[in-house]
Amino acid sequence: MPARSQPRTVLGYVTPWNGGGYDFAKRCRCRLTHVTPVWYQLRSSSGVLTLTGGHDVDAGWMAAVRQPCANQANHTARILPRVIFELQGQDVLEAFQQPSTVAGMLAKEAARHGFDGWVFEGWAYWHALGVTQHPQLREAALGLLRQIAAALNPAGRQLVLAVSPLVPAPGRQAQLSERDAEELLAFVDGLSVMTYDYSSAQQPGPNAPLPWVRQNADAFAASADRAPGRPRHKVLLGLNFYGQEFVWKGKLLQKAEPVLASRLLEMLRSHGGSGTGGNEGGIVTSGSEGQAAGQCGGGGSSERLAAAEAHGMGAAVWELGQGLDAFCGLL
Q: What's this model's pTM, rounded to 2 decimal places?
C-alpha cells in the first residue's frame, strides 16, 4: 500500500438531538480535523429554493471547538456543517437548473457564519429518484456539485460529500458506482462513506463487520487510484460510535433499535451480561429477554481505523455523542 502523504483526516458528526456530542467535540477537538454539526436542509418554500436550519448555529460552541491545542500550534478543527438535500418533485429539477443559485446560497451562508465549508448529503437520495441512472440528470447533478465546489474553493472552503458504500450490505442495492466515486473524487475535498448500518431487523447482526469495511476500503482505493492524483486521502471511512440492539424471545425478534454506549453499560450493570470486543466492536449478551445484543464503536474501532490508515484514508465518525468519552483516544 502507498504511504500516506499527509496527516489523516478525522471528521466527526454532531447532532442537535444528541447534545453530548457538542461537549465531546470540544473535549476531543485536538483529535479531530473536521467537525460537522447536522444543522441545515436545502428545501423549497412556495417554489423558491431556501436554506433552513440556521437557527441551530452556535457561534460560541464553534469558537470553543477552534480553541488552540497544546503542543499543536498549527492545529485548528475545521467546521463544515451538513446540509441535506430535501427537495422533491419539480423542485429537484429546479435546483439542477439553477446550480449557481444553490452554490451562491451555500457560499454566502458559509461566509456569514465563518464555516470552513459544507458536508453535502444528497447522492443516495438522487439515486433513489433515478437521477444518477439517467445520463442527462446525472450530469446535471454533477454540475450542481461542481458549482458548489467552485463557489467554496476560492475562499479556501471545502466540499465533502456523504455517500453510501460502494459494496452494499447483502440484500441492498448499490447507491454509488465506482464511476461515480472516481468522478466525484476528481473535484470534491472528501467522501464521507457510510460504512455502518450493515444489519437490520430483517438481518440482525454486527453494525459494521470488519471484512465488509475492508472490502469497501479496497473498492474506494481502486476508484481513487483511477482519479487524478490518486487521492485516497479524500476517502473517509465511516466509523460508528453507536450500534444496534436486538432482543429475542426464543427465535422471535421482539425489538431492533439503535443502541448507544450508555445503553451497553446499562445492560452490563442491570443484567450481568458478558461483554466482548473483537472485530464486531463491543458485543453484549444478556438472558433477561431471551437474548439482547448490542454492537457499539469501541472494541473494533481501532481495527477499522487501521484499515483506513493502511489504505491511506481518513475516517468519519457518526456520531460523536453516541460513544464513550474514552473513544476520543482512539482517533
A: 0.90
d(CA 44, CA 50): 5
**DSSP letter at 282?**
-
Tally of CA atoms within 13 A in the half-sphere of 12 that contains its CB: 28
Q: Tell the residue number behind the cell numbers 444496534, with chain if given.
A: 244
| Cα gap 331→65, rounded to integer Å | 16
Residue 242, classed as helix, strand or coil, is coil
* Residues 240/297, Cβ–Cβ less than 8 Å: yes
Residue 72 corresponds to which amino acid? Answer: Q
**Cβ-based neighbour number of residue 179 at 10 Å:** 12
- What are phi and psi for residue 39, nearest 5 degrees? -115, -35
Amino acid identity, residue 68? P
φ, ψ (nearest 5 deg) of residue 287: -100, 10
Q: What is the pLDDT at residue 110?
A: 98
Nearest Cα residue to 21 out of 330, 275, 327, 329: 327
Of 181, 199, 175, 93, which Cα lies nearest the Cα of 141?
93
Asked if residues 285 and 292 have their Cβ atoms less than 8 Å apart, the reply is yes
Neighbouring C-beta atoms of residue 93, cutoff 10 Å: 13
pLDDT bracket for residue 46 (50, 70, 90) = confident
* Three state DSSP letters for 152-164: HHHHCCEEEEEEC
Buried b / exposed e over 34-56, threshold 16 CB at 10 Å, is bbbbbbbbbbbeeeebeeebeee
Yes or no: say if 233 and 5 are a contact pair by the CB < 8 Å rule. Answer: yes
Tell me the CA distances in angstroms from 215 to 80, 103, 311, one per residue in order. 28, 34, 11
Burial of residue 230 (number of CB atoms within 10 Å: 0-12, 13-18, 19+): middle
Higher pLDDT, 318 or 282: 318
Cα–Cα dist 234/241, whole Å = 21
All 3 cell numbers of residue 40? 441545515
